[in-house]
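Lecture notes, unit on binding sites. The following record was shown on slide 14. It pairs a sequence with adenosine monophosphate.
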Amino acid sequence: MQQVSDQLRLEAKKIGFVPTMGFLHKGHLSLISKSKNIADITVVSIFVNPTQFAPNEDFNRYPRDIDSDKKILEELGVDYLFLPSADDIYPFSFQTFVTVEELSKIIEGEYRPTHFKGVTTIVNILFNCVKPHFAIFGQKDAQQAAIIKQMVNDLKMDVVIVVEPMVRESDGLAMSSRNVYLSEEERNSARLLYSSLLTAEKFVQDKEIDPERIKREMKVMLSEDKNIRLDYIKIVNADTFNEALFIEEGNVYYVLIAVRIGKTRLIDNILVRPGR
Ligand code: AMP
């Protein structure tokens, strides 16, 4: 991969990179399409990264379908698929990790304390292999994107981070490889996430300034479905990821939500702008 990228750079080609864990869906496809728009060459990686899963999480059962993914990438005209093995990435002697200290501890980090350390480490390794000019991430993992931007900034990494908007199913459920875990009944319950986010957006548009009020209303909505167990609702400044004390015009906020439905953990979010 490094040799390919060196050659592309010699030819003055701009390299766009889309890191994924595979089991591709339309969310991934929108990142790929962005890369094809802004770069000369698009590289997609598929790697289910063990270090971002805690021992109690779903690493072993995470959905994989490499043959179907390859077909999709070929049809899209993606230039390179980077498909390293776990041993390539983490040989027995491996011992170096990259951590964005503060941003990794809050929100998702409270529930998944080792997750973002695994993410920033693998993204670093992948960047060193692919040597991209642009790397495209999804709003689906908004905190992840903020952490990667922080890392790139702090470590003066020579890559532009692009964040693409959320892609949803027709009923509003955020596209995710993990949606296949849901039974029909659970899938139905999952629709409430987006409804609750739309409710939050409406409150903000109607100039509600108190984040606690908005969160309370969302909680009431979600508590009506017995399948849903709430991990958190947070309203944060979209630039800093600090929790908002008030919703102020001129700022942009993320309303972030994480729930468990049966054995499946789902996250979702919406960007909101007061008074618009
Ligand atoms: P994953 O394969 O789940 O690790 O995701 C790979 C990339 O796709 C990440 O940057 C995600 O944020 C992004 N992504 C996943 N789902 C969506 C979605 N529904 N809309 C937009 N981007 C997404």
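Take-home: The chain has two domains: 2-164, 177-272.
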